Amino acid sequence: MRVLAAMSGGVDSAVAAARAVDAGHDVVGVHLALSAKPGTLRTGSRGCCTIEDSHDARRAADILGIPFYVWDFAERFTEEVVETFVGEYAAGRTPNPCVTCNEKIKFEALLEKALALGFDAVCTGHYARLSVVDGVPELRRSADAHKDQSYVLASLTPEQLRHSLFPLGDSVKSDVRAEAAERGLAVARKPDSHDICFIPDGDTRSFLEKRLGERPGELVDAETGAVLGRHTGVHGFTVGQRKGLGIDAPAPDGRPRYVLSLEPKSGTVKVGSADHLTVRRIDADRPIWPTGRPLAGPTECHVQVRAHGGIAPAVAEAVDGGVSLELREPLTGVAPGQVAVLYREDPAGDVVLGSAKIAATA
């Protein structure tokens, strides 16, 4: 096959490209320039898509002996990922930009261009497994539970999965680094990027305030209605947040307070005890079915609401164009805007049944 290897400049994508070469594919490497100011998006292990990263990717491609290009997707990344992120926070929701990036950039914009240029598939360094059962692609959790990235890939369609390769799905990270060193790849010891790539200093609140300005409101006790303080915008908070609330006086019972809900129109942030964070029901909309098969009825599954953690057994049912989830075990810190990913237990690795955006909880 003709394979386009997305090379971020990190160890995972470099080894994934190397394995695609070893498999006999005709491989071309490409680095996505996602920032109009690439020099500003890396601070140590924070951030990505810098000039440094593009150079690292090019050096890896040279060692592998494959052609290499840099494609400028900065404008589309800003529109599809950054502006969506800001808009979601302004609306009182908690988005996952990595999910959006995979959906809109790596497996929509990139894959579309790759297919138009005659490539058969896009190869990435994601830790996830892909199998085909009766002609239907199935996305599964990776062998490395600590690195599993099936959650952030759960928005892919069957057609996108048919043109995707995830060579690292059966590997653990330590083996990938060792393999990179054996191949002479300089990125073998390069730190993993973490947090949000376009907020390299990790200060999400400041990033949002620069774009949204101050939108003052009140911090209100959810039980008594008492005003406990003021804030500069609901975009500075997420459901389940404990620190940085700006409340001077402790709760009467001495227990910590948490953010329970956000009301962007009124600017109200309601806070209360951890007891009120418990969620037993989730209603989600905009479902995506990677297998192409929506739920046929009430379905036992596991639901995951964060990229790492937040997993519980549940009964899922497709309802009115969305998904209703009754949790067998309660979860906490579940916020509108997060993605709920449904998994079916399977001996060969849990299978992604579908994903949807959380709209409401109870």
Structural notes for this entry:
- The protein is of the alpha/beta class.
- Among the domains are: 2-125 and 167-189, HUPs (Rossmann fold); 214-276, SH3 type barrels (Roll), CATH 2.30.30.280.
- It is 25% helix and 30% strand.
- The strands form five sheets. It has a six-stranded antiparallel barrel with strand order 14-17-16-15-18-19.
- The chain is globular and about 65 Å long.
- InterPro entries: MnmA-like, MnmA-like_C, MnmA-like_central, MnmA-like_central_sf, Rossmann-like_a/b/a_fold.
- Content of β-strand: 25-35%
CATH topology of the domain at 2-125 and 167-189: Rossmann fold
- Taking the alpha carbons of the first and last residues, their distance comes to 48 Å
CATH superfamily of the domain at 2-125 and 167-189: HUPs
Which CATH top level class of the domain at 2-125 and 167-189 fits? Answer: Alpha Beta
The low-confidence parts are none
Helix content: 25-40%
Widest sheet: strand ordering: 14-17-16-15-18-19
Radius of gyration, taken over Cα atoms and rounded to an integer in Å: 21 Å
Distinct helical segment count: 8
Query: What profile does the largest beta sheet have?
Result: 6 strands, antiparallel, barrel
GO biological process, one term: tRNA wobble position uridine thiolation
EC number: 2.8.1.13
Active site: 101 (nucleophile), 197 (cysteine persulfide intermediate)
Catalytic activity: S-sulfanyl-L-cysteinyl-[protein] + uridine(34) in tRNA + AH2 + ATP = 2-thiouridine(34) in tRNA + L-cysteinyl-[protein] + A + AMP + diphosphate + H(+)
